């Protein structure tokens, strides 16, 4: 059995340079150059004592019965290693990203183990790597973009995808969407934002930070750089799928996207008036500038967009994430719906076969649309009352009561301006949209017709 506490130094019994499989830099010293112990019947975990072999450049423990994980701090143990062969063992867990700090490494053989998870993208930092093999493991996710290795290096990992293997689902979608939305270069976007400088930051949301930038064609754009992009792959694809296919005056314009290594970036037309939430809940005078006719204009635009998404085009879409924060305002205060990262295509006809969007395509029932209707009702109440959405978590009983639909609940800035009757009609509409039973809520087409008539 290989003792993981073996010190690998001159305190070990015997003269280490005379051990089988041990080669030293010079016969008369104890500096180990290489350890080669393949097919020796060794058992145990990876020997951490190897860190005492500070000059080792080659390690071959292949074809044994070693188990456990490869140490997460492996570069601290064998920092100057050139070749590593741990193939044909029982190692499990993830390939540690720290392996990328073994900067002299030119051969890494990990095939025929039980390794799982992603191949760490940091491996592309190993500029000297000439041999790489992870075949016959349980690895998943995309193959990192680095020096091309033959397909045999990745064989029999059913969850791996990307060149030289079959394209990942995301990559297949991206290739199709390149025909609709411009694919942009990371270096170009980094330059436009002064390397994503905080000085250019205009927002920080759940998916990442947003930057204002001027791109080479002279357009002013908003650049959203997703954080933890590996965890947000589906949201990224959903956003470019929806906004790449759909075009409407009240949807934000997606100008381009970047998909490089671990970078996921979305580029939109810049909206100079920010989002509706900022105007409604600003501590300054913004709310005062948002008079009733302007608020109604915004309500009509949002209702029109949702009605069109639900029933107006070739593709029926449920937004699923409507709030005043995702309603952007252009220079004329025309509303633009954004944040389609939770959007779902409903009854998409031939969209699945045409665009291979299976992760985002769902065949849902009629009540799915009514989730958008409910959230529209919350937005409408927020616009009319000036209250935050979390203050509007009212029960259906409250919503149906005459006391709730009262001028006392309305933003004081809207009262006494000659619009009180219209305000009450909109309050009643909000109440109907937020009914507890989905089937009792109106459709978005009915909502749009109502607000258009009121306006």
Automatic annotation (TrEMBL):
GO terms for cellular component: membrane. The keyword Transmembrane applies. InterPro entries: Kinase-like_dom_sf, Leu-rich_rpt, LRR_dom_sf, LRR_Rcpt-Like_S/T_Kinase, Prot_kinase_dom, Ser-Thr/Tyr_kinase_cat_dom. Keywords: Leucine-rich repeat, Membrane, Repeat, Signal, Transmembrane, Transmembrane helix. It is found in: Membrane. It comes from the Eukaryota. The keyword Transmembrane helix applies. Residues 196-454 form the Protein kinase domain. GO terms for molecular function: ATP binding; protein kinase activity. Pfam families: LRR_1, PK_Tyr_Ser-Thr. It is a single-pass type I membrane protein. Gene3D superfamilies: Phosphorylase Kinase, domain 1, Ribonuclease Inhibitor, Transferase(Phosphotransferase) domain 1. This is Protein kinase domain-containing protein. It comes from Solanum verrucosum.
